[in-house]
Amino acid sequence: MSYEKKQRIATLIAIVFHVIGFAGMLINKEWMASVTGLNLLLMLGLVLYTHEKLDVPFWIFFMSCFIIGFVVEYIGTSTGYLFGDYKYGNVLGISLKEVPLIIGVNWFLLMYCCAVTMHFMINKLSVASGGEVSKRIKWMSLVIDGAMLA
Question: Which of 9, 56, 59, 74 keeps 20 to 30 A from 48, CA to CA?
């Protein structure tokens, strides 16, 4: 199956599930909250299905996002720093130190989507300007603009 066809299928699945999720939140918030972890796993599956190259750098990126995100959430929930005073309940499944493990997947998905969006935007701007953007500018844009997007 072509890469483009995989992307179209995955995009359609994601849109359908998010529309259902939005409608479900209007009807029954508690039940929809209880399946949030499953939705995150489905979205992870779609990323793994569509990503062109599941190589070592990809898995390093995945693990970095997962671990850093989990640690940040642990700091946040245990100290109140970073995001204010908050706690996770039991709705997101298995937890470690009162932080659901699925939060690491959520952080990966957020960072992955921001990175893909920034790469897309940088490439479009390069084409629109009629020239190649330097690697340094691309890197700075990816980091700074990606962080702002997140």
Answer: 74
User: What residue ranges in the chain does DSSP mark as E strands?
Assistant: 95-96, 99-100
By the 8 A CB rule, do 40 and 66 touch? Answer: no
Which residue in 63, 90, 60, 86 sits closest to 75, CA to CA?
86
Contact 52, 3 (CB under 8 A): yes
pLDDT in tens, 124-134: 777 666 667 67
Calpha distance 149→113 (Å, rounded): 10
Give 112's contacts (C-beta < 8 A, 6+ positions apart). 47, 61, 65
Cα distances (Å, whole numbers) of residue 52 to 2, 63, 100, 116: 10, 18, 29, 12
